[in-house]
């Protein structure tokens, strides 16, 4: 595990020094905008999310290597109707929804109670 931590720290430092994640668009370069239909956080992430996110991430990086000014906003969606629906299921005591939160996501039971009012 220590080896992986060293690899992570090495590359984070290299990326920070190279300003890899800082935008510096050049005038006159072609533009490319990509987006990812971000998942709602009303359930656990799964390999389908990783598969889709990886493909669009690779595409964005490829376009940048081709000389494009690439804008790739990245986010997770934590609000909206799906969250209100999840809150309602918890309020009603729906164990098919609550049990995975406890067992798979590791959400403490005392935290689950706070989900009843997401707003």
Give a brief rundown of this model:
The protein is mainly alpha-helical. It has helices at residues 2-18, 47-65, 81-91, 95-103, 109-112; strands at residues 31-33, 69-71. Helix 2 links the parallel strand 1 (31-33) and strand 2 (69-71).
Order of helices and strands: HEHEHHH
Q: Helix/strand/pairing class, anyone?
A: mainly alpha
Biggest sheet details: 2 strands, parallel
What is the first-to-last residue Cα distance? Answer: 39 Å
| Percent of residues in helices | 40-55%
Describe this structure as you would to a colleague:
50% of the residues lie in helices and 5% in strands. The chain has 119 residues and is mainly alpha-helical. It has two domains: 30-77, no CATH class; 81-116, no CATH class. It has a two-stranded parallel sheet. Strand 1 (31-33), helix 2 and strand 2 (69-71) form a beta-alpha-beta unit. The longest helix is centred in the middle third of the chain and has 19 residues, at 47-65. The protein is elongated and about 55 Å long. The two termini are 39 Å apart.
């Amino acid at each position: 595990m220590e080896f992986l931590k060293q690899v992570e720290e090495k590359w984070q430092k290299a990326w920070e020094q190279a300003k890899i994640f800082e935008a510096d668009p050049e005038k006159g370069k072609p533009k490319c905008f990509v987006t990812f239909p971000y998942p709602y956080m009303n359930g656990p992430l799964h390999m389908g999310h990783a598969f889709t996110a990886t493909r669009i991430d690779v595409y964005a990086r490829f376009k940048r290597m081709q000389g494009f000014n690439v804008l790739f906003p990245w986010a997770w969606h934590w609000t909206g109707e799906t969250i209100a629906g999840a809150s309602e299921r918890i309020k009603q005591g729906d164990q098919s929804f609550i049990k995975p939160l406890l067992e798979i996501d590791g959400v403490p039971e005392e935290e689950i109670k706070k989900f009843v009012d997401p707003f």
